Amino acid sequence: MVAFFVMSIATSIPNLFIGISSALQKIPQLAFGDIVGGNIVDLTLVIGIAVILSNINLPAESKLVQSSAIFTVVITLLPLLFILDGRIDRIDGVMLILIYIFYSAWLFGNKKRFSKTYKHHKKDTVRGPRILKIISGVSSLIFFVFLLLVASQGIILSAQYFSGYMGLSLSLVGILIVGLGNCAPEIYFTAISARKEQNWMILGNLMGSVIVCTTLVLGIVALICPFEITDFSPFLIARIFTIISALLFFVVLRSGQRITKMEGLLLIFIYFAFLITEIYFK
After folding, report:
1. What is the pTM of this model?
2. Less packed terminus of the chain by CB within 10 Å, N or C?
């Protein structure tokens, strides 16, 4: 439950800041590319790394994991459906946010998913100067928000530089570079969880991150700055590999209710095949 909701939101914060900053600067195509590219990375490369680093096959027998797999696949394909008319407008944005609210309500709808976690929770008996704790917490929050704002601006400027210097569209830079870079929190969390044998956290975080970015983040971007895709060429290959990645992820997750080492290597191969194809046919 923690991985599906809390950690997925935490690892999606860079995508949110990139999305809001790019929308405010009237280049939401960068955020769209980031989300599409990031989804492919999460469903192939990151899961493959998790399986390779794990001492055993990645278990997926949990009912929550199996049910969320259906949500993940459907939601991953949503942007491809919404963009068929060549634009994502505010109505699409509202629909995406409502889908995220529905998913969150479904996630919290069953008390069994989180009641055991707090069953034996004890109240903290240590009393201290609460006002100092509050001030310290708020200060830390403001500081890290400021860092994220600065980092998001740096990433956007770098993306614009790469776009001009290499003659690539911002959408393609988002798919190939920003999408991979923004998956760094998921890769780090996955590696740490695999090494600590907390495998149950990995799939929850990855599927939750895909859902958060595709619904909440993209929905906010569309509300701030609706956009049109006039050149579909950067998304043609990404669209094909998004479908392949989502369907393959669903198949390997449902077959045997685990992801084996060989399946992990196959997912990694799919990512590099996407990377090579996208660069070669750019």
Report:
1. 0.83
2. C
Specify whether the CB–CB gap between 78 and 97 falls below 8 A: no
CA-wise closest residue to 242 among 218, 278, 212: 278
Which pLDDT value is given to residue 137? Answer: 60
Q: How far apart are alpha carbons 122 and 265 in whole angstroms?
A: 43
Beta strands 227-228 and 87-88 are antiparallel
Domain residue limits, the chain? 2-112+136-280
Residue 77: exposed, middle, or buried by beta-carbon count in 10 A (0-12, 13-18, 19+)? middle
Amino acid, single-letter form, for residue 235 = F
Task: List pLDDT tens digits, range 60-103.
Answer: 777 878 888 888 889 998 888 888 888 889 999 999 999 999 98
Output the CA–CA distances (angstroms, integers) from residue 5 to 17, 23, 63, 72, 199, in the order listed: 18, 25, 16, 13, 16
CA distance linking residue 277 with residue 260, whole number of Å:
26
Tokens standing for residue 105: 């309500």
CA–CA gap between residue 229 and residue 248 (Å, rounded): 27
Looking at every residue in the chain, the average pLDDT score rounds to 81
